[in-house]
């Protein structure tokens, strides 16, 4: 998995962030339960909890709804993957993308684990009590209802889409918004194309398997030497195609676990940045509206409007301040993350290629030696 | 199989049943002595003959020879009798120069070339001249325009065998020439038990692309056909009997070849239909052949099974090829999108790495295509060839059945005639009695011949199947070794690409 740069952050979190692991997923009817293990900072042991997707959602909402944190709207929230379902519809599976491939939800668990790492290593977010409860409490927190945060993109989407294109007052942010727009589109496209590659590789692996099995049917009984030799050759060919199946399968797995997850994470993070920038833009619109109102209004209401304007200004400034920090951090993190993904991708594929080359060579020598 | 074009029904079928009025046996004036085959007139023409017509076989009129070029040698033709004669084995006549292949064939000494016993000798005598031939089909060239256009292929033979006039020579041939060659070989050898390799299939879709389409649209089709023609020729010449056939030699050596006519009827697909029709006809005759030879029963079952397995394998490989090509397409799309991402990225090192990624993926796309081609040209076509070859094997089994049937029919008829003769003994009709006696004498000869035919074809089939099973081992082994070599090469290329990319990824920060 991805190496976390160990941030030394003052936090009230009693566990070491990089020790958090989603170790297992258990099927319970139609639902999935995830086992999460984390090591106590005190070194006295570990916490082991079971959580469902609803618990993760609870945590995310908790993080969203920290009104007491100044400029909270400027934070790029770690993106939570979409819900994983058994017997999911085609649409739901498509939404999950590469996270739905692979066996036993392994990629999905890794994505959840990354989410928790991101939260636990964020200097503001990891102070949230919700995180501690999530990681340590024996009682699953998600069963309690939490007030839906105001950052629900869905609620904003309906009323405010037009704001997305609103011109910014700050060049830094305008540039960032434009750039983010391009990157979000490109990254999504790359992730989707990569998924197509992975899915086709899986089909090839299956086809190799079928061919390998079918060859066994060609084995003929009998003592005739030519028949025996032919049968031996068929068995050998079957072995070769089985090796091919294993090779293609491992290539596909490598793809998913490294670059696949990386592109998926990058894509979702870009979306998260987009949402943050949108929130800030909304704040900008609020501020500009408040300013206009303050100017227009007659003296009786003027004081109230001025106060609103001041508040809006403060919020906007705080948000922008936090946002700037977040953006810088975001840029560094993403380059680091993508580099790691690319290196691991290359290294695992190199290893698989070397192993396969050796395996094929063995087969080749054996066949050549065959009388 | 890949080609699904279907030809119109063949004009002639060689497995029509004996029609009414046709005699199984020739007219009274003839005898079965091989020294006077010229006196045998045309007999039942329910089967058509390819090559010399019965009554013109011993004329000096060469023109008749090609009058019915699509006909097949009838089972009762005098030429066939000659084929099975047990006469003294002549010295193997040297292969006559291709241009004069017709006239010398008319004389008996050259007809002996087709005696079976001499076939055995051919194999033995030529043992010293071991098989050493390489045929390549290359340089496809479009000749002509529009709907009359066709592809001409260069057929090059490299050999050290004394059978040929020189060590290396080339000729230009078109597809119908190959079909023509096959039709001649099939008509001469199939019915006596030789497994004649089937010619590649016709393809209306493919050829239309060649005729009217742009070159890049038909390239794949032309390459597929070129490879198939090459395999066809190699398989044919590897057969020790077929190799020595004058038609084969003429095909390989002669710069001019008479246009094969009516190849529609006898293309691979056409032949398949004919064989299937024959099989149906045979089945409809409800032959309950007393298979005294368990070997044949077992073999037929074995080939039925093999046919099923190979078809399954073939469709399995086709699906693999399909997915592999799909992977190539998807890889190319991924490469493009990665390049676009690289361009949009403003972190310089990351941008460069992404561009390198796009390049690596482009190279991998090419590897996938190469692999798909290996999948196809090695395995898919091998399996397809064998499925088609087994059709010929089944045809040969059916011919044996037919031969047996003919023998049985002769026996039955003989019995009837004997009963009739017995009755005639008590009447006072010396003429009729004599006629009956003559008929019986002839029928006895026919029965003998029938039995010999049956034994001969059985013997030939045994040898052919043994050869098939040896060839099968060689073919499959060769293919899997070539395939593995391609796999190893692909992996080594991949390793190089990854090794080159790794430092780029590490250099990002």
Low-confidence stretches of chain B: 1-118, 121-127
The largest pleated sheet of chain B is described as: 3 strands, antiparallel
Indicate the overall shape of chain A. Answer: elongated
Euclidean distance between termini CA atoms of chain A = 47 Å
Count of helical regions of chain A: 8
Overall form of chain B: elongated
Rg of chain B, Cα atoms, Å: 29 Å
Distance between the termini of chain B: 53 Å
**Helicity of chain A, in percent?**
55-70%
Q: Largest interface, per-chain counts?
A: A-B, 59 and 56 residues
Average of per-residue pLDDT values of chain B = 76
Our estimate of the beta-strand percent of chain A is 5-15%
Largest sheet of chain A: 3 strands, antiparallel
Strand order of the largest sheet of chain B: 1-2-3
How would you describe the oligomerization state of the chains in this entry? heterodimer
Give the strand order, joined by hyphens, for the main sheet of chain A: 1-2-3
In short:
The complex is a heterodimer of chains A (371) and B (509). Chain A has 371 residues and is mainly alpha-helical.
What can you tell me about this protein's structure?
The complex is a heterodimer of chains A (371) and B (509). With 371 residues, chain A is mostly helical. Chain A has helices spanning 53-64, 90-96, 106-120, 129-136, 153-160, 171-216, 225-296, 299-369, and strands spanning 21-28, 31-39, 46-51. In chain A, strands 1-2-3 form a three-stranded antiparallel β-sheet. In chain A, helix 6 (171-216) runs antiparallel to helix 7 (225-296). Chain B has 13 helices and three strands; from the N terminus they run H-H-H-H-E-E-E-H-H-H-H-H-H-H-H-H. In chain B, strands 1-2-3 form a three-stranded antiparallel β-sheet. Chain B starts with 77 loop residues before the first helix and ends with a helix. In chain B, strand 2 and strand 3 (168-174) form a beta hairpin. With 509 residues, chain B is mainly α. Chain B has helices spanning 78-83, 102-106, 108-111, 116-125, 175-189, 204-212, 215-238, 240-243, 246-253, 268-284, 294-344, 348-424, 430-506, and strands spanning 133-143, 150-159, 168-174. The chains are: A mainly alpha (371), B mainly alpha (509). The interface between A and B is large, with 59 and 56 residues.
């Amino acid at each position: 998995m991805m190496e976390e740069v160990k941030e030394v952050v003052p936090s009230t979190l009693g566990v070491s962030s990089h020790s958090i692991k989603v170790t297992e997923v258990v099927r319970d009817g139609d639902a999935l339960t995830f086992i999460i293990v984390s090591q106590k900072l005190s070194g006295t042991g570990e916490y082991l909890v079971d959580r469902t997707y609803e618990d993760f959602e609870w945590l995310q909402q908790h993080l969203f709804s920290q009104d007491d944190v100044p400029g909270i709207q400027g934070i790029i929230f770690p993106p939570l993957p979409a819900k994983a379902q058994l017997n999911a519809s085609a649409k739901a599976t498509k939404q999950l993308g590469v996270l739905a491939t692979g066996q036993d939800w392994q990629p999905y668990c890794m994505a959840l684990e990354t989410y928790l790492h991101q939260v636990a290593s964020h200097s503001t977010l990891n102070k949230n009590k919700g995180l501690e409860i999530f990681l340590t409490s024996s009682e699953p927190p998600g069963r309690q209802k939490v007030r839906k945060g105001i950052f629900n993109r869905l609620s904003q989407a309906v009323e405010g889409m037009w704001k997305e294109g609103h011109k910014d007052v700050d060049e830094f942010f305008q540039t960032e918004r434009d750039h983010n727009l391009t990157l979000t589109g490109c990254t999504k496209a790359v992730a989707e194309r990569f998924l197509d590659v992975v899915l086709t590789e899986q089909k090839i692996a299956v086809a190799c398997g079928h061919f390998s099995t079918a060859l066994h049917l060609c084995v003929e009984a009998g003592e005739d030497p030519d028949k025996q030799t032919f049968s031996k050759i068929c068995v050998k060919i079957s072995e070769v195609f089985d090796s091919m199946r294993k090779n293609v399968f491992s290539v596909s797995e490598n793809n998913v676990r490294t670059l696949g997850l990386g592109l998926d994470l990058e894509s979702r993070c870009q979306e998260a940045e987009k949402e943050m920038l949108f929130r800030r833009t909304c704040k900008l619109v609020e501020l500009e509206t408040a300013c206009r109102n303050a100017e227009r209004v007659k003296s009786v209401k003027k004081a109230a409007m001025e106060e609103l304007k001041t508040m809006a200004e403060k919020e906007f400034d705080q948000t922008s301040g936090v946002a700037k920090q977040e953006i810088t951090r975001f840029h560094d993190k993403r380059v680091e993350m993508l580099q790691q993904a690319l290196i691991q991708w290359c290294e695992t594929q190199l290893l698989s290629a070397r192993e396969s080359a050796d395996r094929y060579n063995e087969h080749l020598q054996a066949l050549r030696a065959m009388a | 199989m890949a080609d699904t074009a279907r030809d119109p029904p063949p004009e002639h079928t060689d497995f029509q049943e004996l029609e009414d009025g046709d005699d199984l046996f020739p007219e009274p004036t003839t005898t079965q002595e091989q020294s006077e085959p010229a006196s045998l007139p045309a007999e039942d023409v329910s089967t058509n003959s390819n090559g010399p017509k019965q009554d013109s076989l011993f004329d000096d009129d060469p023109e008749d020879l090609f009058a019915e070029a699509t006909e097949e040698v009838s089972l009762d033709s005098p030429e066939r009798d000659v084929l099975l004669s047990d006469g003294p084995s002549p010295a193997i006549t040297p292969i006559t120069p291709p241009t004069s292949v017709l006239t010398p064939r008319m004389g008996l000494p050259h007809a002996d070339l087709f005696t079976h016993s001499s076939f055995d000798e051919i194999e033995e005598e030529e043992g010293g001249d071991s098989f050493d031939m390489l045929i390549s089909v290359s340089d496809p060239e479009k000749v002509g325009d529009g709907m009359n256009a066709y592809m001409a292929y260069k057929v090059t033979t490299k050999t050290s065998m004394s059978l040929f006039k020189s060590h290396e020579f080339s000729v230009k041939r078109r597809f119908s020439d190959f079909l023509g060659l096959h039709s001649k070989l099939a008509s001469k050898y199939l019915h006596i038990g030789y497994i004649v390799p089937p010619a590649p299939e016709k393809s209306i879709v493919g050829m239309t692309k060649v005729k009217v389409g742009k070159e890049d649209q038909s390239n794949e089709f032309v390459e597929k056909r070129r490879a198939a023609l090459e395999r066809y020729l190699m398989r044919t010449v590897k057969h020790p009997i077929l190799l020595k056939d004058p038609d084969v030699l003429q095909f390989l050596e002669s710069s001019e070849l008479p246009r094969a006519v009516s190849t529609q009827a006898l293309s691979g697909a056409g032949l398949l239909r004919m064989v299937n029709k024959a099989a149906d006809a045979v089945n409809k005759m409800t032959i309950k052949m007393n298979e005294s030879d368990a070997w044949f029963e077992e073999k037929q079952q074995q080939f039925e099974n093999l046919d099923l397995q190979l078809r399954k394998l073939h469709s399995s490989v086709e699906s693999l090829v399909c997915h592999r090509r799909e992977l190539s397409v998807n890889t190319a799309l991924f490469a493009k999108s990665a390049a676009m991402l690289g361009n949009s990225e403003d972190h310089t090192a990351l941008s460069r790495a992404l561009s390198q990624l796009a390049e690596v993926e482009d190279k991998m796309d090419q590897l996938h295509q190469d692999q798909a081609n290996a999948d196809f040209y090695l395995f898919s076509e091998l399996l397809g060839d064998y499925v088609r070859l087994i059709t010929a094997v089944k045809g040969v089994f059916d011919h044996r059945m037919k031969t047996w049937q003919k023998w049985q029919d002769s026996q039955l008829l003989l019995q009837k005639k004997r009963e009739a003769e017995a009755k005639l003994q008590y009447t006072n009709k010396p003429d009729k009695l004599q006629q009956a006696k003559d008929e019986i004498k002839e029928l006895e000869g026919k029965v003998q011949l029938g039995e010999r035919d049956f034994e001969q074809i059985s013997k030939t089939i045994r040898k052919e199947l043994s050869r098939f099973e040896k060839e099968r081992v060689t073919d499959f082994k060769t293919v899997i070794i070539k395939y593995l070599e391609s796999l190893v090469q692909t992996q080594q290329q991949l390793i190089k690409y990854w090794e080159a990319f790794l430092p780029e990824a590490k250099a990002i920060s």
